[in-house]
Each structure stands twice: as structure tokens, then as C-alpha cells.
Design a protein that fits this description.
By secondary structure, the chain is an all-alpha fold. It has two domains: 75 residues; 239 residues, no CATH class. 75% of the residues lie in helices and 2% in strands. It has a two-stranded parallel ribbon. Helix 1 packs antiparallel against helix 2, helix 2 packs antiparallel against helix 3 and helix 6 packs antiparallel against helix 13. The longest helix has 31 residues. The protein is elongated.
Length: 334
């Protein structure tokens, strides 16, 4: 029966998503299922039954008048191009590339957050020689260079998938099923990763606070600041990685036009789109801007124990914007 269902979906995929077409699809699906059950009951093998059902009901042109969708078929063949169809292999490759590149972006951000660590430790432990200063600056610039390099490399790696956002694309029923399976399978892991990230954000100040309350030496306080940076950077890394596959699945599942039947493969159509263009633009630069603000504020004020709060605030702003401005189910982007 799965073969018959897939064939039925492919028959109606490019037709307009109207009540008449949906009704015809359900009627034809029921007829195919009844015929299949009858053939199986009469002793036909599964392959023979599937082949006979498709041969009898597989030509939509011949059934158009009986189903009352002749006009819909004619309209579906003109001015309703699906554009480029993304294959199953391309969809898998895109999701893998997105997951890999999100890890690179996360590592780049982690390196940026941790970059002043050596300088902080040098000041805390009283390492004031020229060699110590040189080592601290070398560590700083190396980490910043690694951050920039990873971000640039990841962006270049993802450039080959730019057509998914710039061209009219679509996916078939089988590809949509695979993407939905990946999305469901990764949901629990993503939730766990976000939980760990939030815990790191909420507890990163604890070691430094305990050192301060206990009247620890400046060396331990400096170590507490570096530990705070490490936990904040790690939380940001995990947060970036956690949403990579889910966001990739949303993009793929949102490719099909909601005006066609294949747009119903994913009821969350539009989850990755936003009703406000300004909000969409802000979200695209929110995290890089947060990292830049964090570094600028930290270097100008040397308030490393306080400036980390920028990242939890960014998480809240990110989630708030996505909740408020995300297109509701079934609506098109403005």
C-alpha cells in the first residue's frame, strides 16, 4: 500500500490545493485501496495487486472528468511551475552540510568568547613579562583568527545551497517523509542540548561567585572568570548546534508552495518565515552582533564577570522575535 500511496501523492502533487482536488484525491485513494484489498483477497500477490491498481487508476487524465478535476488539471499544467525539484540525496546532503557547518559556526563563536582567557589569567597570576604579554596577545589573535576562519569557511561551504532560498524549489512526497523523520528523530536531542545550554548559562557565574564569597586570591578569581567564559562559550556552541537540523528540516519542508497539493506535506508551512522583514533581518545578524558587543564591552570595561549576561539576553530576544513574528500555519509570508 505504501507504493500506491506514494504514487497517488505524485499524481496530485502539482495540482492546485483546492477543496475539489483534495476531495478527488481522497476518493481516488479510497478506490485504489478498495481495489487493492479486493485483488489481495482474490489471491493476487502484493506486487501484482499494486501493478494492476496503478494500471487501472494511474492515469489522472482519463479519470479527470469522473473526479471533476478537469479544470484543475489544466490549470496545474500552466503557470504553476514547481521550479527545481530537490532530490532525496540532495536533501540528505543539505541536512548533513548544515549540521557540519553549524558546528563550525559554534566552534568559531566559542573561540571568540574564550579568546581573552590567557590575558585574564596573566593579569590574575601576575605574569607581566614581555613574553607573557606576547603569549597572551598571540593566543587572543589566534583564537579570533580561528573564529573568523571557521565562520567564513562554513559560510562558503553553505553557499552551494543558496538556491534553496533564491530559486523556486520543491520536494516530492518521499523526500518530505524522510525530512519529517529526521526532524522527529532530532527533536529530543535538540531539546536536551538546549537544556544543557541553558544550564551552562545559568550556572556559569557560580564558580566565580563562590571564589569571591570565600575571599579567594586574585589568581582564583581570574580562573573563575576564564571558567565563566568557557561555560558561556560552550553553552553558545551547544545552542547553535542544537537547532541546525531542525531549522534545515523546516526550510526543506517549507519549499513547496501552499497553493499546491504537495504544499500539504508539512502542516507547519511557514514556520521558518516571518511576517516582518525587519525581524527577519535582525535575526540573521543577531548572534554575530551579540558576540561583537560582548567582546567590545568586555575589552572596554574589563567586566568579564558581568558581560556574559549578553548571551542569555540574546537567547531570550531570539526566541521572542521568532515567537512574535513567525508566520502562523497556513499563511504566506508577506
Amino acid at each position: 500500500m505504501n507504493t500506491i500511496r506514494n504514487y497517488l501523492e505524485s499524481m496530485f502533487a502539482k495540482l492546485p490545493n483546492t477543496p475539489e482536488v483534495i476531495k478527488a484525491k481522497c476518493e481516488l485513494g479510497q478506490m485504489m485501496e478498495d481495489k487493492y484489498s479486493e485483488l489481495i483477497h482474490n489471491g493476487k500477490s502484493e506486487n501484482e495487486a499494486v501493478a494492476q491498481v496503478i494500471s487501472e487508476f494511474g492515469n489522472l487524465e482519463e479519470l479527470a472528468d469522473a473526479l471533476g478535476i478537469r479544470e484543475a488539471i489544466q490549470d496545474g499544467g500552466t503557470g504553476n511551475s514547481a521550479g527545481r525539484e530537490v532530490s532525496l540525496e540532495e536533501a540528505r546532503s543539505y541536512l548533513d552540510s548544515r549540521a557540519h557547518c553549524s558546528l563550525l559556526h559554534g566552534l568559531g563563536t566559542f573561540f571568540a568568547v574564550l579568546s581573552p582567557g590567557w590575558i585574564i589569567l596573566s593579569a590574575a597570576f601576575g605574569w607581566s613579562t614581555r613574553l607573557d604579554l606576547t603569549a597572551g596577545l598571540l593566543f587572543l589573535f589566534t583564537m579570533i583568527a580561528a573564529c573568523v576562519g571557521l565562520h567564513v569557511y562554513a559560510s562558503l561551504r553553505m553557499r552551494k545551497w543558496a538556491f534553496l532560498k533564491t530559486e523556486t524549489c520543491s520536494i516530492d512526497y518521499g523526500t518530505a517523509g524522510m525530512v519529517n523523520d529526521v526532524r522527529r528523530a532530532s527533536r529530543d536531542m535538540a531539546a536536551l542540548q538546549r537544556t544543557v545550554a541553558v544550564l551552562l548559562f545559568c550556572t556559569c557565574y557560580v564558580p566565580l561567585s563562590l571564589f569571591a564569597v570565600a575571599g579567594a586570591s586574585s589568581a582564583l578569581l581570574g580562573f573563575g572568570v576564564v571558567l565563566l567564559l568557557f561555560m558561556t562559550g560552550l553553552g553558545t556552541l551547544i545552542l547553535i548546534v542544537s537547532s541546525s537540523r531542525e531549522n534545515g528540516c523546516r526550510l526543506l519542508l517549507g519549499l513547496n508552495s501552499p497553493q499546491r497539493v504537495d504544499g500539504s506535506y508539512y502542516k507547519g508551512q511557514g514556520e521558518g518565515k516571518y511576517t516582518n522583514k525587519a525581524a527577519s533581518a535582525i535575526l540573521s545578524v543577531l548572534w554575530p552582533t551579540a558576540v561583537c558587543i560582548y567582546l567590545i564591552v568586555s575589552f572596554l570595561t574589563f567586566s568579564w564577570a558581568v558581560s556574559w549576561i549578553i548571551f542569555p539576553i540574546t537567547v531570550v530576544v531570539d526566541r521572542l522575535l521568532k515567537t512574535v513574528f513567525r508566520v502562523k500555519e497556513g499563511k504566506e509570508n508577506e
